Amino acid sequence: MRSDHNRVPADLLTLTDLSKAYPGVLANDGVSMGIRAGEVHALLGENGAGKSTLVKMIYGLVKPDSGHMALDGQPYAPAEPRAARAAGVAMVFQHFSLFEAMSVAENVALGMERPPRLRDLAARIRAVSESYGLPLDPGRIIGDLSAGERQRVEIVRCLLQDPRLLIMDEPTSVLTPQEVEILFQTLRKLRDEGVAILYISHKLHEIRALCDTATILRRGRVVGTCRPAETSAREMAETMVGAAFAAPARLAGTPGDVALDLSGLSVASPAAFGTSLRNIHLSVRKGEILGIGGVAGNGQDELLAALSGELRTPADAIRLQGRPIGRLGPAARRRLGLLSAPEERLGHAAAPEMSLSENTLLSAAQREGLVARGFLRRERMRAFASRIIERFDVRTPGPDTAARALSGGNLQKFVIGREVLQRPEVLVVNQPTWGVDAAAAAAIRQALIDLAAKGAAVICISQDLDELMEISDRLGVLNEGRLSDIRDAASLTPEEIGLMMGGAHGMEVAHV
Amino acid sequence: MLRVERRPQPSRFWTWLTPPLAVAITMIAGGALFAALGENPVAAIRTIFWEPLFGEFAFYYRPQMLMKGAPLILIAVGLSLGFRAGIWNIGAEGQYIIGALTGAGVGLAFYPLDAWYIFPLMVVAGALGGWAWAMIPALLKIRFGTNEILVSLMLVYVAEQLLAQMSLGLLKNPDGFGFPGSRNLQDYAAAHNAEIIAGTGMHWGVVAALGAVIAAHVLLQRHILGFRVRLTGQAPRAARFAGVSPARLVLFCLGTAGALAGMAGMFEVSGPSGQVSIDFNVGYGFTAIIVAFLGRLNPLGILLAGLLMALTYIGGEIAQSDLGLPAAAIQVFQGMLLFFLLAVDLLTNYRLRLRTPEVAP
Predict the structure, then answer these.
(1) Would you say domain A258-500 falls under CATH 3.40.50.1970?
(2) Do B360 and A79 touch (CB under 8 A)?
(3) Are strands A66-71 and A11-22 parallel, antiparallel or unpaired?
(4) pTM of the model
(5) For chain B, what are the domain ranges?
(6) Taking CB atoms and an 8 Å cutoff, what residues of chain A touch B240?
(7) Predicted ipTM?
(8) Which residues have CB under 8 Å from B359's CB, separation 6+?
(9) CA distance B226 to chain A (A)
């Protein structure tokens, strides 16, 4: 770790002592850092470390409580994003703000102060996208584009403003490895042209591959800066978390009988721009973890719904221990031992306004005997909630706390714990560690591994390839509603998985 | 500068304190209104809130409060279940009318037989009538995805036509000299919803309303069905994940609301009103929607809100006749009460913070 910052070329953007408090939490506490022109600067930290708040202040979405910023030596205090854009600061958000029913050019025009004629704009989009190796057809409808192509729209939208500082918030979370490589080439080209790039991520190998400098945040404070290329991923991770932590341990077991079998499962998506499942075959054995990768929006939600019982299918398409269950609803499937944990914690896996104790009823009413002749057994609900809180180290005042008052990681531990403690025969989880801090993620993965070791079959749907490689025995990939062949995880390289994910989704590697 | 800030959890303290606070603010603002009209504000407020309960003629007004409050509470309790689950039955007025028609119809069919089972049969018939009327929007919603707000509301006007038809036709009093309207059930002991204790206003509808409040409270707090109702309203996706069937919930919520509204209609037609007539319905079904929300869709809250609503109606009438206040002023006053209740409600989920304005660096 180097604490002395090399300031030979003057910083483009300097942050001095920035602080921002929200009720009950100090999101940024005296943050000072500098970003130079022509560098890719990583902002590294766990969820809740204050990365988002910091960039929101730079982009004019949030006003700092104290401290000041300077751009090119001039005081810089954008009152709103428009002022930030005028000063040459652009941002690509993690969640795209695009209208699916409109074309690329129309979407770009919507974000402009004084949009030119659509035909001129289309020509400019084509020119910019080609010169940066991001081929994009301005006339295509957003709803038809892959996540990687949508991100290109956002990036091109920023590049049209000739930014001096480009902020990218977790840009690779929706990309295949091949798409990531294309993105990195574009970012390197921009850097070489003198653009400063502030790159937010918690994926250490990406930061090591791309970034020149890294600033590490923990609990709102700068806890270190380093040159990622010269620092090990482990060292950065430990600075980020503030402690050494153990990676989950996986012992190879011997898989038992087939627990869950899907044969030719096809289901239409209930959502307007959802992805229908097409002819999915898979089987998972007792004691085994089956990983299902793929970029979000390729049928993950639909697969979880079809397995949880929220979507009904032909009876024979899904068999639980040989028994056709495709027509059964969620409660009946739970009775038979098939449990699930959806991706969206608030509003799907848990009811935000209800207490943790009441939230146990969502999935554990029958298996834990929380209801007797229709009446709630509040003592047992509380006891079960307390057991989850204790066993899964959920940080909360107690079982009477409303679910929405918990942080993402703690609520996720509660949701996973609720299912795991019911001793399922088969457990299906979707994005179990999405938006969860590293320590909680490790705990959740360990819980899934332990569950499989006790003889349950686990299906883990995740976008996080590292996670899948770490815990899965076998691995398949969802791409446009189809499931690839399932292969032994140990024999796969990230590149092969990337190809299973559909490669670069029809996008060619840039030739510039 | 005042800022509104979301609380991490709804405040229990404010949940209970907001209704009395709203009443207090209404008294102040209403007093100002009456003062502006040239009335003594203290006397006016006293007339509205004090006279019906403790005034010289309280012996007459107190039973009135129960009789006006009971149908409001009975209907509102039923509606609140649906409202909590996001199922919007706006047609309680129609279910109320149909319940009165089927209830009275059964009673009149037995005329002049004197038997103990007639009145219980009428209660059942009233509930079934309201239930059946509510099943129309429910089944249409489940089968064809129609909007229950529109269907239930339009069925109110159908029910009104049916009411007129019945009072002029099938149910018309054969000994009524050709006047519209049925026989008066108050004169038919076996079918009369008489006061249980004379002079208290305590008729069977009041008993049913109290029973409904208790039953709904137990259902919502202690029973899995009530949990499903709450869950569906708060987080519909979580409800599907938990295995709640939306169709069954629609049937349950609309059915219960219809049955309770039908019972309310039956108790009214066989008691305070006495006969089926063209102008039998006076808007209890619509006012009950307000009562349900005033009571925060909570059965105990609805009990208090129903009584408060009845109180302002009766107090308002007294103020009109005794002080000569215009009817519009009374309506404004009632509107104020509603407004302040809903406005102060903000404090349960949000808090106000005093803040110095941010200074640009």
Answers:
(1) no
(2) yes
(3) antiparallel
(4) 0.78
(5) 74-293
(6) 310, 330
(7) 0.81
(8) none
(9) 10
